[in-house]
Amino acid sequence: MGEEKDLMTNLVSELRRGTLILSVLSQLGEAKYGYALVQSLEEKGVEIDPNTLYPLLRRLEKQGLLSSQWDVGESKPRKYYTRTPMGDAIFRELKAQWERLSANMEQILKEGEA
Amino acid sequence: MIDKDRELINRYVYEVVKRVPKEQREEIELELRELIGDMSENMTLEQIFVKLGDPAVFARKYREDKNYVIGPEYYDNFLWVMKIVLICTWAGILVSAVVKCIVDYREIVDVIASGLSNAIMGSLSAFGCVTLAFAVMERQKIKVDLKREKVWTPELLNPIPDKKARISRGDCIVSLVFIILFSCLLIFAPQLFGAYSVKGGELAYVPFFNLERWRFILPVFLLGMAAGFVDELIKLVTGCYCRIVMLSSIITNTLGILFSIIVLKVMPFWNTNFAKEVAEQFDDTFKLKVFWQNKQVLGWDGQRLSKIVLTIIIAASILEIAVTVYKTMRYGTDVRGQN
Question: What keywords appear on the UniProt entry (chain B) (predicted)?
Fold first, then answer.
């Protein structure tokens, strides 16, 4: 039984991994700091561990999809991330891909049920 | 925030930061403190640490490290190179051990022991060096495509070898083992090839070969064996009759014939005193005496024996070449896809 559960956990996390970048990009049309992003995604039912998100944000920044800025005005310094123009373009393309994928998947799964 | 909590946060941050590249440490530390600060608004410190998990894992995600030594892109080439390097290492060690055996044949136990330890150490270092080289290439993203120069296309599909063109791996391994055993016998106990009799409760023998000159004869013998060994290895690796196997068979068998001629015709191969020694040794063994006399052993003639043995060897070699050429032409396909 334990093995089956492990397998399920692996499969689910693999399935979700591909959607992570798209979820993150979708939320960063306006600047947000890391933990606010965690919370806003969680509210929408998308759980993401901070120890996955923070390194991911850095990587996307390195790839040029996001830009960051430290805001030191408030009581504690926070790093705000936002999409770059290149990030915008890639987000649109990924979104279109996702919509096609999701429509196809829906079709396939409907046929699978019948 | 109490001092104890501050200390725990410092510890956690330190555990992560010490594992990331120096130039990123400062910023990652700030990010972590921001994150822990934000989380602590509605979580206890313990809950935060449980949620963030092992600092080593966290740091690894920051490093974007590869969690493997050799990745899938390099794995095929890695295995291929590893096989070749290991085979070369073993062949080298085998050859050097054989040479040492000939030179230091009095200390054969030592030579075998050091050969074995060389084989183990050599395999380990070969494995280590190949792995290290590939691990570096993996990390430096050095592209090597040793096996395929071109992009794969459907035309590169090799025809499946005809059933009759397949070479049995078992046969090859049996041949390899036989070659090694025979070589060992020739090196360590050439006197075993001879005529035996029990005389006065002790085993007496008369060798067929000229053991006095054995040190000159043996190397030629072993060269022939080595050629046969390589030939069998090639068969084992390719697994079917193809151009490489055909070429190797032609070369090996031709060499075999050449070496046989050198050994049997040029070198003093046979024990010229065989007849005399047999007559002395087996004097009191009636049956043997009759047997040997009937066979005209007293007219022991090295020249004639050489001719007979040579004829058999040449016939067998030519037969093998013929069979290989026939099978390659008839059923064989070249590994590169052309016939």
Answer: Membrane, Transmembrane, Transmembrane helix
Cα→Cα distances B149→B36, B103, B146, B273, B334, Å: 52, 44, 7, 61, 18
Shared domain for B56 and B83, answered yes or no, is: no
- Nearest residue in A to B35, CA atom: A35
B39 touches chain A (CB under 8 A): yes
B52/A70 CB distance under 8 A? no
The span from the CA of B222 to the CA of B100, in Å, is: 13
Range of the structural domain that residue B18 is part of? 3-63
Residue A44 domain boundaries = 20-113
pLDDT tier at B333 (50, 70, 90 boundaries)?
Answer: low
How much is the ipTM here? 0.83
Q: What is the pLDDT of residues A34-82, one digit of tens each?
A: 899 999 999 998 888 888 899 999 999 999 999 999 888 777 888 999 9
Residue in A33, A51, A78 to test binding to B, most B beta-carbons within 10 Å: A51
A contacts of B51 (beta carbons < 8 Å): 49-50
